[in-house]
From TrEMBL:
Species of origin: Gymnodraco acuticeps
Any one Gene Ontology BP term: proteolysis
Residue ranges of domain Peptidase S1 in the record: 180-413
Disulfide bonds, paired cysteine numbers: 21-33, 28-46, 40-55
Pfam families, alphabetized: Ldl_recept_a, SRCR_2, Trypsin
The protein's name: Atrial natriuretic peptide-converting enzyme-like
GO cellular component, one term: extracellular region
Key words of the record: Disulfide bond, Glycoprotein, Hydrolase, Protease, Secreted, Serine protease
Length: 420
């Protein structure tokens, strides 16, 4: 689609020359125009909230805030620990590891300063809304410098599990696990980010993946016909659907964000962000997986894992299943699907014969890959592909999480920090 705020073409040509704003206006991602004085003020003025994205940054640990189309330093006068915590949280990082007030060395020229607003608590929850411009400079001439810790993710501490790897000869797998369809039961705590999306008397409907203390991902098609948040709950830390056990946690759903470009006909942009109604308690059995960087992709022919409570023959297993799959290039994947288009929003994995692949009931479940340190990253969400009972089994098709990393972070930020 042209001029919808989501680039589809090389060099972004479908998003070029879409609107012309006045000199005192800035263009939103969806090509609305907003007065520059409203940009990064802590309130949304673009309908897609893009006027409040990327307003806060740390440059060599020095806090920088974008306001009225210019960068400002933050005066350390009246700064406090609460604001340091907010800074790191808003950037998606862990608690501050170091906070210092650095003397400004600028001798010539005039520094642009923002100051802590005296009524900051009534100014919204975003940091930029709690700061203001003043006619005078910073009295102390000191800037705020913050170092944030990294949020821990992608670790599997339960029971000291060994690496889930198999012997390979010349890059091939000697002993391949028989798909989730054939079944290999996962050990308790092996995949602490796996969750079950449940609704009413039907119980388990889709898989989901924990990506933060209050956030999970699943696919958009799970919510077709029932997008109301009050219809759903998320159960975490369980291995057996029939017997959740003492390690499980249940949370209601506060909001559901289905990707606005989700296309049911071709199952493209098949992703949703789920906001839990309260934070999870992080344990060995419940903890988030890592999101990929915006350019991070698994290599073709590398091996990753899928998990879920998928169909096995004519029944659904109660215990969580796991299987190892090979990443397949998009061009190779396309050769298996003559009647469907494989887009950059998709990721393919499995085996040519379909021996290992996720099935119906695993929709929204994770495809995760491990790095050399044993940290696991989410690269795919089970979307569509081979059908368990089809005579012709091909690779599974997953929503490509890397493509959506920025969008996911924007939704989390928007629903956490912005007021209308």
């Amino acid at each position: 689609m042209i001029c919808d705020g989501f680039p589809d073409c090389p060099l972004l040509v479908d998003e070029a020359n879409c609107t012309v704003c006045q000199d005192n206006e800035l263009s939103c991602k969806n090509h609305q125009c907003v007065h520059r004085t409203l940009w990064c003020d802590g309130k949304r003025h673009c309908s897609d909230s893009s006027d409040e994205w990327d307003c806060v940054s740390l440059t060599d640990s020095v806090l920088t805030v974008f306001r009225t189309a210019a960068e400002y330093q933050v005066c350390a006068d009246e700064w406090n620990q609460e604001l340091s915590n907010l800074t790191c949280s808003q950037l998606g990082l862990g608690p501050p590891s170091s906070v210092s007030m650095v003397t400004d060395q600028l001798v010539t020229g005039r520094r642009r300063w923002l100051h802590v607003h005296p009524e900051r608590r009534e100014r919204g929850t975003a940091l930029q809304g709690r700061l203001e411009k003043r006619s005078h400079a910073c009295h102390s001439r000191r800037r705020v410098s913050v170092l944030c810790s990294r949020e821990e993710c992608g670790r599997r501490p339960a029971a000291g599990l060994p690496p889930l790897r198999q012997k390979r000869i010349l890059g091939d797998v000697v002993s391949r696990q028989k798909r989730i369809l054939g079944g290999r039961v996962s050990r308790k705590g092996a995949w602490p980010w796996q969750c079950s999306l449940q609704s009413g008397p039907s119980g388990h409907v889709c898989g989901c993946v924990l990506i933060g203390r209050r956030w999970a991902l699943t696919v958009a098609h799970c919510f077709e016909g029932r997008e109301g948040a009050d219809l759903w709950k998320v159960v975490l830390g369980l291995n057996n659907l029939d017997h959740p056990g003492g390690n499980s946690q249940t949370r209601g759903v506060k909001s559901i964000v289905v990707h606005p470009r989700y296309n049911r006909a071709v199952v493209d942009y098949d992703i949703s962000v789920v906001q839990l109604d309260s934070e999870i308690e992080e344990t060995e059995f419940v903890r988030p997986v890592c999101l990929p960087d915006i350019s991070q992709l698994p290599l073709p022919d590398s091996y990753c894992f899928i998990t879920g409570w998928g169909h096995m023959g004519n029944r659904m297993p109660f215990k969580l299943q796991e299987g190892e799959v090979r990443i397949i290039s998009l061009s190779q994947c396309q050769s298996y699907f003559d009647m469907k288009t494989i887009t950059p929003r998709m990721l393919c994995a499995g085996y040519e014969a379909g021996t290992v692949d996720s099935c119906m009931g695993d929709s929204g479940g994770p495809l995760v890959c491990s790095d050399a340190s044993g940290r696991w990253t989410l690269f795919g969400l089970t979307s569509w592909g081979s059908v368990c009972f089809s005579k012709v089994l091909g690779p599974g098709v997953y929503s490509n999480v890397t493509h959506f990393t920025s969008w996911i972070q924007q939704q989390i930020y928007t629903h956490t920090y912005l007021s209308d």
